[in-house]
Protein: Phosphatidate cytidylyltransferase, mitochondrial
Amino acid sequence: MTAKRKSFSLNDKRRLIEAYDKLPKISQRVAATKLGIPQATLCTLLKQRQTVLAANNGDRKRIRSGKAPKVEAALVKWIDNAHSCNARLSASLVKEKAEEFAAKLGEDNFKVSIGWFERFKKRENIVFKKLHGEAAEADMVSPGEWLEDQWQQMRQEYTEENIWNAAESGIYFRALPHSTFTFRSDNKRGGKKLKERITALFACSAAGEKKELFVIGKSHNPRCFNYVHTLPVRYAANAPAWMTRNLFVGWLTEWDRKLAQERRKILLLVDSSPAHDMTNTTLKNIRVEFLPKNTTSFLQPCDQGIIRTAKAYFRKEMARTVLQKLDEGSPATAVDIVKKISLLDAVLMLRDAWADVGASTIRDCWRKVGLVMSLKEELETVDPPAEISAEEFEQWIAVDDSTPVSEPVTDEDIIAAVREGFGMGTDTSDEEEEKVETVVPSRAEMRNAIRILKTGLPHVGFNNFDLLHHFAKEVNLVLDKTTIRICEMTYPHGTEPIHKTEKNMLDFIFSVDDPVTWHTMNLMQNRKHYSFLKYLGPKKISSIQNGHGAGVYYNTLVPADGRIIKYGIISTDTMIEDLLHWKTLYIAGRLHKPVKILLQNDNGKLRAALVANLKSAVTASFLMLPESFSEEDLFMQIAGLSYSGDFRMVLGEDKSKVFNIVRENMQNFQLLYSSILQECPQVVYKPQQGKLEVDKSPEGQFTQLMALPRTLQQRITLLMDPPGKNHDVEEILLQVAQDPDCGTVVHQGISSIVKSSSITQSLKGIATAGLMKTVSYSAKKVQKMWKGWRRRT
DNA sequence: TGTGTAACCACGTCTGGATT
DNA sequence: AATCCAGACGTGGTTACACA
Structure:
């Protein structure tokens, strides 16, 4: 009766979807007849779009997994790893391994049959070639030979300053020494929970120079980082907190760029772990060389003492912290204390520990392994704290030595990774970790601490008064500044896009709930900040502020503590409005770039608006970027939004400025946007190419368009549909989504917002700029004023 | 008129093993 | 190592129909 039913291969399906996309907008029914399939088939097909397009084996007709997908996943990882180590694999070896994994993963029903093996190979596209014995064996070099031969050749063009070594090390930052602290804690709970680990990448040169640490943690946006402006280390995160190829390449690329600026070329030695694989990566100023396999432990300077020394300092500081708390008579056990140590604390401690490692130690380690010939130097020794025996201290330093620091190497790691990937998780839950709250000391407390140091230190023989004075001055400078930030934010140096001459110009935006009151108070305290407009009175000033442009009233050229600052006042409501709807994009646009949020009284609405603003920026950028782009392209696009809407349209000096803002602040951008990008279903991150891919289908673009801020949507409708004919916004956006020039339309919409607002804002700038302000300014005044104002409300 | 879905069952792929 | 077998399993193309 009915014709024989068809069955499509994944390639067929992909072709069908592509063909459907090329069709003009018609009903599924019509489209289906054109494609020669029933409507319902087309409907299901479109629903499977993502799965079909992501499939890698197009000749198959169904995507099916074997009976024990976990075993196969583990096996694939193991094979990958073996390949990257140039190990020879025979079919029987692989089968043996499969059996082992099955046993370890508790897959009792799984049998390593010939049939299974065949299908497994087909599914994964694996072929086992017969290898000839010698090739692999030839790779095995003795450390001595390598040193005399290859190494001498490699290092010829490089001086010791430019010969570097990098190595990862796992760090259980909450680990305690075996016995000393445990007497007061119940051991049962102790052990496991304290195993939170971070991985740090240490890099140093043969001359003793150290590179900023690269720390990899579990959490992308640890809560304890919230209030921190700049981390003293580079930070990244992934679930197992270990080095991946992607992170490593990212780190290298950035370093390469810095070196290019310095016109410096270096030779970097790393061990040959899969995470260090450099294929498809080109670096201009870094030559990456690998230590021969199985000789890493003898030849790697970092492994031979450098990292150990850093860890010794780290653990010593940890002991000091814990012991002090215990001595203060805190009822908490050592375990409790250690649990309160946040990731931030650990990172800061680790940074200091790394800074403490002496250049001579580093040089000596390089000499010891024989990579450089130089004179023997004094090795520093880190004495164990008095409370801990030397032996125990040694053990404590080494507790994390054998932890995996990069993608899987041992079977256990593979199994753990597979378990995690399949959502079974090992028994450790993060709940405990999440509860570590960060206590930021108040400014008064910090000031007091400085005072205590000043009076106390001379009594213990500290006599570098210059240093102390300088330190106190620097700290107070910062403290004073931060106190005047009534609600909001400042731009990090060099990112403020408006002023060209003043490199160190700090720009603050205060969002205040009631601008009239604020101006009244501020006029009384700091009349000199205001231009001639002050004669008009606070009400008039606020009305100028609110009535025109972006709703920001600026006082410029305000001297504060030897610096010139400027500050803008905006009402919180106006700001939220702009963040949510992009009415002017003036404030919203600035907040697309990383800025420091100084003090936030708990305004949930504002916080939500800030996030919404970032999301909008990402969405708008997606629409304007091609299907595939790099992270840098994305940030560039975002940074360009507030200029003319599209970075490509920015000309001349401004272009390089945007470029620089992004380059100098890559890390801050990543910190700002990483969680948003991760949560966004529209974008797929392809780590292999370091590229992001975004859904460019009409449906995808439509959802993106619908998510744009209201004002932008209105502008777009206006562009597409001149007033008069009243079409539905949704209807028009649907049209735009089909349009191949969709990105251009979005760009025009944004630039129409930016143009109209920046004109009014700069006109107002003329009125509010006034004459040069020469009168000195005290931050404390504003602080007092602010306090006074708060009391009254 | 349009799209989405429950149910049905053809058929691709699974399994352990035998055979070439 | 590759191919084949027979039976089981479960995906997904299709039909008929509900729903806006």
Notes: The CA atoms of residues 141 and 292 of chain A lie 7 Å apart.
